[in-house]
TrEMBL record:
One of its GO terms (biological process) is division septum assembly. InterPro entries: G_ENGB_dom, GTP-bd, GTP-bd_ribosome_bio_YsxC, P-loop_NTPase. Its cofactor is Mg(2+). Residues 44-217 form the EngB-type G domain. This is Probable GTP-binding protein EngB. The gene is engB. PANTHER family: ENGB-TYPE G DOMAIN-CONTAINING PROTEIN, MSS1/TRME-RELATED GTP-BINDING PROTEIN. Belongs to the TRAFAC class TrmE-Era-EngA-EngB-Septin-like GTPase superfamily. EngB GTPase family. It comes from the Bacteria. It comes from Stomatobaculum longum. GO terms for molecular function: GTP binding; metal ion binding. One of its GO terms (cellular component) is cytosol.
Length: 223
């Protein structure tokens, strides 16, 4: 079994956060595409996975993080991402885009194959440092969201909750939804919860700083 190799420029390391404390994303490129039968990439860079149901705004979030319009392709058609895509960012980390779950029109066989692919990645990948679980702030978490959160925790991985489409709600509504997300998932207060909008870029700097800190902690542990 082989992974799909993609011709990309050699990595040049740049920190995600500059000396002024602000993000500095200079380079982002799709490097690996992992299919159902693919072997896991042999990487030494920290990996941060992004999970969520179809149409939760995952591609829009990834594009906003790296200041690109179409690095991760957005689509009005749910379930468009059917592979695990590895985006190398600043030669420092990988942002890993997992297939969206809960796509009703997908066949049971396809859903099962996606589930096995995601499970294998979460269970076997050695460089995975955290999973960012995206949740649409306009709705209560679904049964699949709860299952995904528990799946992450059961694998012993740090979970970060990301409430998407924050620009669609009023401030008073946001506080109510934050409470609802935690209660429905059973997430303790120690679990980070970031409100995000790909339109206003709310939460972008906070999320990137958290990634940088987690990557730094991983580096220290390996020394």
């Amino acid at each position: 079994m082989k992974k799909k190799g993609i011709e990309v420029p050699p990595a040049v390391y740049r920190p995600l956060i500059g000396e002024d404390g602000n993000s500095q994303i200079k380079d982002a490129v799709l490097q690996f595409v992992l299919g159902v039968t693919s072997a896991l990439p042999e990487s030494v860079l920290p990996e941060f996975a992004f999970a969520g149901k179809s149409n939760v705004g995952k591609s829009s979030l990834l594009n906003a993080l790296v200041n690109r319009k179409a690095l991760a392709r957005t689509s009005a058609q749910p379930g468009k991402t059917q592979t695990i895509n590895f985006y190398r960012v600043n030669g420092a980390v990988y942002f890993v885009d997992l297939p969206g779950y809960g796509y009703a029109s997908a066949s049971e066989a396809v859903k099962a194959s996606w589930g096995k692919m995601i499970e294998r990645y979460l269970h076997e990948d050695k460089q995975l440092r955290a999973v960012f679980l995206l949740l649409d702030l306009r709705h209560a978490p679904s049964e699949n969201d709860v299952l995904m959160y528990n799946w992450i925790i059961d694998q012993g991985l740090p979970a970060v909750l990301v409430g998407t489409k924050a620009d669609k709600l009023k401030r008073s509504q946001l506080e109510k939804q934050k409470k609802l997300l935690r209660e429905t998932l059973g997430a303790p207060k120690e679990t980070p919860l970031i409100l995000f909008s790909s339109v206003t870029k709310q939460g972008r700097e906070e999320l990137l700083r958290l990634v940088a800190e987690m990557a730094k902690q991983a580096s220290v542990r390996l020394q």
